[in-house]
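Narrative of accomplishments. A recurring question from our advisory board has been how the design workflow behaves on a single, concrete structure rather than in aggregate. To address it, we present the structure tokens for one chain from the evaluation set, followed by the sequence designed for it. No filtering or post-editing was applied between the two.
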């Protein structure tokens, strides 16, 4: 299994027969996939840092590509094709050889739990513990409860790779979502995302006292196009 960081929350996961591209919106360079691979673009929601309709045109050069899009991504009737699959939150799907389970985002759209070729991959989309300074206490408390409720649906499960937000805009709360996720599930490899090109935060989180013991399998991201070959 090969993982490539494209940009922001976008990653490419290459398996023997399948290529999974999460939250690509046209920025950053896509890895060149083997010609016989089945390529799936999975977009968690309609925010422009997670999806733009221009990526539908990639099928011109990737004729086997299929798209799995959250239902909040609106398509005109003429844009709906048999190679575009729209999914809702808290549901399970089999699309080709992929088994997909969705969670409900605490912002918009879905989070992904995907199984392919015996590998299990989690991508959070914008499912995160959004704790904003200046928000009312009731709002932040409700956010915490909603986030924990969704992650608890995965409690005790194992993933070969997990992509989890680490948003510097949350200041001291930036790693709360990652911490809770790693306390509930087992992840063989953990990658930060949604850090707005502030690469320092990917390193600094490893120094946080609260994160000690949780990041043995954590990968620091340093630049676009960074690659990892995993077991």
């Amino acid at each position: 299994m090969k993982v490539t960081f494209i940009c922001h929350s976008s990653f490419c996961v290459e398996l023997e027969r399948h290529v999974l591209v999460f939250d690509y919106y046209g920025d950053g360079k896509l890895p060149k996939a083997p010609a016989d691979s089945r390529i799936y673009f999975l977009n968690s929601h309609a925010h422009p840092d997670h999806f733009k309709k221009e990526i539908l045109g990639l099928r011109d050069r990737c004729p086997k590509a299929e798209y799995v899009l959250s239902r909040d991504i609106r398509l005109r009737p003429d844009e709906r094709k048999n190679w575009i699959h729209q999914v809702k939150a808290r549901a399970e799907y089999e699309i080709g050889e992929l088994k997909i389970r969705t969670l409900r985002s605490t912002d918009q759209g879905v989070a992904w739990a995907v199984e392919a070729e015996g590998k299990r991959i989690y991508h959070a989309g914008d499912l995160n513990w959004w704790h904003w300074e200046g928000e009312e206490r009731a709002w932040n408390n409700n956010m915490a409860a909603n986030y924990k409720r969704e992650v608890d649906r995965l409690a005790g499960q194992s993933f070969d790779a997990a992509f989890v937000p680490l948003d510097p805009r949350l200041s001291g709360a930036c790693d709360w979502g990652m911490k809770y996720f790693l306390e509930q599930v087992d992840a063989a490899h953990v990658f930060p995302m949604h850090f707005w090109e502030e690469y320092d935060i990917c390193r600094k989180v490893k120094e946080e006292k609260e994160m000690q013991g949780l990041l043995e399998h954590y990968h620091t991201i340093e630049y676009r196009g960074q690659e990892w070959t995993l077991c």
